[in-house]
Fold site-specific DNA-methyltransferase (adenine-specific).
Amino acid sequence: MNAPLVHPVDVDLYLDFLRCKMQLAKADGFDVAPEDINPAGAPHCQAIVRWALKGGSRAIFASFGLHKTFMQIELMRLVGRFAPGLRLIVIPLGVRHEFFAEAEERFAGDCAVKLKFIRSDAEIPSTEDGGDDTIYLTNYESVLAGKIDVARFVAASLDEAAVLRGYGTKTFQTFLPLFAAVRFKFVATATPSPNRTKELIHYAGFLGIMDTGQALTRFFQRNSESAGDLTLFPHKEDEFWLWVHSWAVFLQSPADLGFSDEGYVLPAVSVNWHEVPIDHSTAGYDRDGQGLLIRNTALGVTQASAAKRDSLAARIDRMSALLAEDPASHALLWHDLEDERRAIEAAVPGVRSIYGTQGLEANEKNAIGFKDGKFKYLATKPEMSGAGNNFQKHCHWAIFVGVGFKFHDFIQAVHRIVRFGQAEECRIDIIYSEAEREVRRNLEGKWAEHERLMARMAEIIRRYGLDGLPLDDVLSRSIGVRRHEERGEGFVIAHNDAVLEARRTESASVGEIVTSIPFANHYEYTASYNDFGHTDDNAHFWAQMDFLTPELLRILKPGRLACIHVKDRVLFGSVTGEGVPTVSPFHAEAIFHYLKHGFQYMGMITIATDVVKENNQTYRLTYSEMMKDATKMGVGCPEYVLLFRRPQSDLSRGYADEPVTHAKPLVIAGDGTERWSDGDRRPQVPDSGYTLARWQLDAHAFWPSSGERLLTTDELVRLGPKPLRALFQKVSEEAIYDFEKHVQLGEELAARDSLSKTYMTLDPPSKHPAIWTDVVRMLTLNGQQAFRNLEKHVCPLQFDIVDRLIDRYSNPGDIVYDPFGGLMTVPYRAILKGRKGQASELSATYFRDGERYCREAEAKRAIPTMFDMLGIADAGTAEAAE
């Protein structure tokens, strides 16, 4: 079944292709000498500035108080010296005074700069070419409103850039194309991904390091039950963090880079949670209209907001009691609602406030006054003053008069006082109502995750430094695999790259190919660059398939079939810029790919999937969006089995060199003897053969017409959703289909709350043999994996699909081949079907598990039947039984 390598030159080309997959953050900036950098900056600032300028587009994720303001100004100053042009720093509202103060304090003499705050392009002199030392500042709001033509600038830095962390936000979607042409881009924040690790990739997208959708596919696995729930692939975790380190610096302390931490030790912090009671008489009603005696303590955002208003008086009382404990100390009073601000102003004499309708000038005046210690109490919202302000000089106490779900705003507010340069122990008091216990748990969980992320990156930078990471060496180790083979009486499987293994296989030795190819870069199964899922896009995937498909054609017997399982992919509008989810016609690309390599296209089998489950994964077909605009909604994505044939040797005849034959049905002659339907006497076979009726359905399309009724609502609603689904399918196969009755039945079930929202209850039936609606989705080897507590395959292939293809398109004893073996479903089913299985698999884990399944299949085949034990050669005749 195997032969020596066939095309060694092509193997070299293939390895070159794999090496080109490595995507590291490119360094396309410029070098500066240490003496060129402003000496007023701390040593760690000077090192980071040199690193960022060399990279050209980099992220500075430095902790609170590590001088991100200085570094951004210095980056813009040096860009102006080495690459003259307009330079821009985008800042949150209310923090421009911090930049002007920094420029005045640290930028003098040869390093002097001129900062100018602008609200629109009109404030840039028409003669300005970027040749002087002016660095422009503007707010995010001006950019979002289109008042600033970003394309005019050669360099830009985003201060408090965590606004980019939300992929679907207006800020990210607007900034990504606006800044695309800016040559030097930098981002700076102390909280790059306070909620989830995946938020980090949005900075890479903005900086031009890697497309965000590509990074999601490369590093994150999806929860198949819920859209948007992504976690790092365990086998990709190390590579992910090293990749991030190639374009971002995470710094918790100057000591992380080998510098002295003198003056950079965070103060001790005490965090105190204060729960206040609420008025349960306002608990309201449940969905059935029954009055509630007590409030639910597991609240979502909407319910928590209502509960917050009900607990306002109790929270203000607790705040007043806390202030009375230490009347001499200055305190920040954080709140979320305007009603809370007004209540604070009424309860706290001498308090100053920052709020939206007051105006930017007045707000900045109050921020500066509190920073300079001119008054004791400042009431403000985290979303207004939580970023960019440094209040640590005269304040070490913060009281959160309420809590919310926005952890980013919360942690930023905490660190207005908990930062380097703070001379006192900090006190954080957090007041919440008993109805907000879930909000507290949410905040504490995200806080812990934030600390884990920062610790992980601090570990990497301490280990490798800024420029010491040998990424080429680290990542190149993931190319290649040491081949390992296992074989039995009915199978040969190899732990190997699919291309390299196919090249070892003898020409024209395979009777059928059954495989589920990777869906381009939709999933990555291993940490290896050999992985076909480790590709940039569809074109890159098909380029790797160009090495495999010619080998599949070569090893397949002339006239035999390759059955290729594929599925189209949903492309989200926020990724493509289309604004609406569209569908990548992956199955169509596959057809033309295989035609290009010499296969004959024989048609496709459609496998219906559950549109309700698909929507839970993609949110593409939601009912609510359909109500707003039906043009946004397409249809669900079925799966397909594409049928391709290697041309037979003799093109003057349509038969395969070794035809796949099916037995004709037996008939009983007048004399009682069994004959074939063509009149020949033949020995009896164990089955009834291939009937004319089956041939007509296999060979001809069939469309059902409307007519008789389906089951009534009363007949179905009593069963419950799961038995209902099975019965509906069974009866639908026997009845004449009526679409309007189908819709009516679903509507009646929904009215009785019996239409499931997690899976499709009334699947549309099909009698067409090329549309398979009865595939058992859960009947895969993943069931055994779950039972044994082993790693489940990302995209398992169902037994039903494999069995039907093997029965239809191969002969007993044929080799059935799968280049992407996974858990070895195809060899496993081939053995049980009396064929021989052959496959390759790149994942060592899947390969080990798949070997066990193949040996189990051989053991099942070896178990003797009752007739074998009795020594009966032909169980079909009475004579043999006697």
